[in-house]
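Subject: Acyl-CoA dehydrogenase

B.,
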Amino acid sequence: MAASPKLPPFDPADPLGIDDLLEVEDLAVRDTVRAWAADRVVPHVARWYEDGELPQIRELARELGAIGALGMSLSGYGCAGASAVQYGLACLELEAADSGIRSLVSVQGSLAMYAIHRFGSEEQKLRWLPRMAAGDAIGCFGLTEPDHGSDPAAMRTYAKRDGTDWVLDGRKMWITNGSVAAVAVVWAQTEGGIRGFVVPTDTPGFSAPEIKHKWSLRASVTSELVLDGVRLPDDAVLPGVTGLRGPLSCLSHARYGIVWGAMGAARSCFETAVEYATSREQFGRPIGGFQLTQAKLADMAVELHKGILLAHHLGRRMDAGRLRPEQVSFGKLNNVREAIEICRTARTILGANGISLEYPVMRHATNLESVLTYEGTVEMHQLVLGKALTGLDAFR
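Prediction pasted inline below.
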């Protein structure tokens, strides 16, 4: 009888052996982004969060461009042409540092650049994508409005014809990168349906006042976009799409990154909880030696690595051209919800220290409250799945 093969040792950092599913190139991307975040973000982000700012954002964008993290899953025009799994791994590592950094990359690549890459003219692509891929031009994505978030079809921003030009009027709200962007992709109603416009932010009538007094995503630039008679030439419109299919397909691409990113925040909190539980002593022993703490850690590990496995599965489907929007909703709904629960449980293990910025737990927890809402609330993703499961539309 042949001897049983020797099993590899149990790895607490990878209890399911998910790394076995990754290629050498995947691991290289992950390690590159992790090293950059450890050097350029982690040592400073608590201070940025406390101060409510993201200093040197343009410098950070250029550094992210240099490692190929901007528009990394797009091909050509200076983009890295990475796989969906590699892009997901990058999102996980960036959000393990902070959700605001991952949001910077997601909005740049999966929303603004993706819209231009998929729906733009060749002239628009050549003008903007190489600069955006390098981080020399930051982009933003204007869809959400002050009174219309989950119902973008009711947007009030309007673009009307004036001769051969377009004139845009309206407001967009909660726009990441808005105040520092060189270009905005703005969606507006027209006589012929919803259209996307590539708007240089130095166009007269365009302004982007920064939103202050946030208690979430504080290390991130969030703005309102104000469009007062913004006059654009005819070639500013994205020619490749009319209707909500355009912005919604961009959102689906960005939501995919969130599926991975949320697990990065969860991993950071879980690792902090494990380290704390094995060093913090109460009643003469580390609190990690008590059954209730071990139960919490076990449950956190199960949900964390299930979430990473789900993200990996969706990434392989995206790389195979088989990922449906409903499946992205599945991932976003599950992973963000579970990430928040992991952060909250980690906070209980740290006790009072859990609210201190000396540890990343409360920062991740508050950031995830925004991630839970943007690019589709819990309720909207539940209804997407409900319709897919029953065939009945409950949105109205």
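The radius of gyration is 22 Å.

T.
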